[in-house]
Design goal:
mainly alpha; single chain
Length: 90
């Protein structure tokens, strides 16, 4: 028995066709990306929360700069030791 044109067998396989169509649908779905939007009110709240902290931090940085430039800045060795101790204990 001789079988000619074996490629026709795949053309008649309905499972393969549905499987290929599912793959194309899955690739279309995978292209989608999640998206997050933040409302203008939430952005205003976020900016309002940052402003006081930024101004306090800016004032502290300016104070430290003045101390360093005048030579009055001193480092507390006890505070440094307390922060380093957990890392050295490991």
């Amino acid at each position: 028995m001789k079988i000619n044109e074996t490629n026709r067998v795949a053309a008649l396989n309905p499972y393969q066709r549905t499987n290929e169509s599912q793959r194309t649908e899955e690739t279309k779905k995978s292209v989608r990306k999640d998206e997050v939007t933040i409302s203008p009110e939430a952005m205003e709240m976020l900016q309002a929360a940052k402003k006081p902290a930024e101004s306090e931090r800016a004032a502290r940085i300016q104070e430290l700069k003045q101390q360093v430039s005048s030579g009055t800045y001193s480092v507390d060795a006890n505070k440094i030791a307390e922060k380093l101790l957990p890392f050295l204990a490991e």
